[in-house]
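Subject: sequence -> structure tokens, single chain

Hey, anyone have a minute? Need the predicted structure for the following. Not urgent.
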Amino acid sequence: MPLALLALAVGAFGLGTTEFVMMGLLPDVADDLRLSIPTAGHLVSAYALGVVIGAPVLAALTARLPRRTVLISLMALFVAGNALSALAPGYHWLLAARFLSGLPHGAFFGVGAVVATNLVAPERKARSVSLMFMGLTVANIAGVPVATLMGQHLGWRATFLGVSLIGVAAMAAVALLVRRADTPAPSQGLRGELTALRSLPVWLALATTVVGFGALFSAYSYITPMLTDSAGYADSDVTLLLALFGVGATAGNLIGGRLADHAMRGTLFGGLASMVAVLLLFPVLMHTQWSAALAVTLLGVAAFVTGSPLQLMVMERASAGPSLASSANQAAFNLANAGGAWIGGVALAAGFGVTSPAPAGAALAVLGLGVAGVALAVDRRRAVPSAVQERVVASHVPDPTGLVRSS
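Reply:
Had a minute. Here:
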């Protein structure tokens, strides 16, 4: 594995920790700021909306800069946002700081994914993306549980100060391990990046990300009250269960990266179908502690199998300008975060029960399968005319020798 991938994974670890830790800290933040759980859930959405806005905007503004410089600058903004979260005097200030923290997230993953695929052979591109994303999933094994534990014992503000230090370490790792030669400035600039976004297949891939991962966040945003109120776990047990989700996510990510290098579309459909099944079983599995732990692990596996194939699919369909499209996919991922958290909150507030966000997520996963199916149909329709045109051109190539007849 190139050491540059390790540096990207460290950055992903910090981003993943601050993104997912709010789910574990929801009860603590709500109690401290005197908020309801659904209102505190807006802090999850604020970060996600920061990603949605920041990913395309920052990717566009930095289109002609060396990608190494862009990665370091994005992590500096990440450090500032988390430090301000720790110092926020009230709910609205914390909401704004979470939004600021989310701004660099999508652009870092988007640009980082482009850098990662340039470091390896073409047949290992999906695996290179999965190795970078491994920082995100390992954050759920180590970063999020430790940060949640820190928040429970030292206060949630200490958690965000700790995450800021992870960001500083990520800046140092990128500066030391990512060579300038690996991250030149994109040659096509902003115009080429914008041109790539005019493709219908790109937008269908982005829509699949929004709907498919919305299914995950509909349930995962409210995983803590599910585990405590339905499965009967104590608050102190949530840390270990969040780590189990991270184990599942890491396994799913690595499996998805390997499978996607062989069958990208099949891996995507398989992951979405698995998510439907797991989320439909959630209300049943949450009745006992052992099955609830199994449900959390399986959710991580099913969701993150789809991560690498979706990221690579967007990049391949926007090959003329992959940085902006890749960043836009991260915006789509976090639009799914915001939308999924909102839909799960609606189901919860409507009184359908503490596990109701999971079936709502299953419905989103079914919709994701439908969008992926439309994308497949569009790709096949576009491939047929191209193949016909190639045969026609080949059959009418002039033969200067006169020795070969055209068919």
